[in-house]
Amino acid sequence: MNYEHLLTTASFIPKVSAKTCNEYEQKKLVLIAKMNSLLLERPDLISLIGEDNKQMMKDNHANHVRFILSYISHPIPEVLTDTVLWVFRAYRTHGFSSNYWPAQLNGWSVILKNELSDEAFNEISPLYDWMITNIPTFVKVSDIQLKKNNSLH
Q1: 25: domain CATH number?
Q2: I need a surface site. Which of 20, 30, 97, 101 has the fewest CB within 10 A?
Q3: In terms of domain of life, where is this protein from (predicted)?
């Protein structure tokens, strides 16, 4: 599994309807608040995000919703893949564990199932399933990219 695999599989994620985009946008503040609450309640939070990173985590959740809304409105597989890889690299350099991503993405799936209509959830869940399924590949590819960047310094 590599970057090309991510791009290829991303191109198979079904597009969502304008109705789902609108619903996601209208519920974005609730989604962010619920995600923040869910993770802030975890007893293992510090092991997931590192010390003094709660605000960064909250910012990530808000940025996540903004990015997903942008992506589902204008899906471009390269943008999705490159952005997720960038997020994996950037947050890990700030002390986030690779275990944060399954906790976060599975959390989003639960929250979306509870907060969106069945129709909207069924349309958007393949995107989240793709991200969750590919966490090991994102970690592997971002590790390679981090090592390349570190070797340049």
Answers
A1: 1.10.490.10
A2: 30
A3: Bacteria
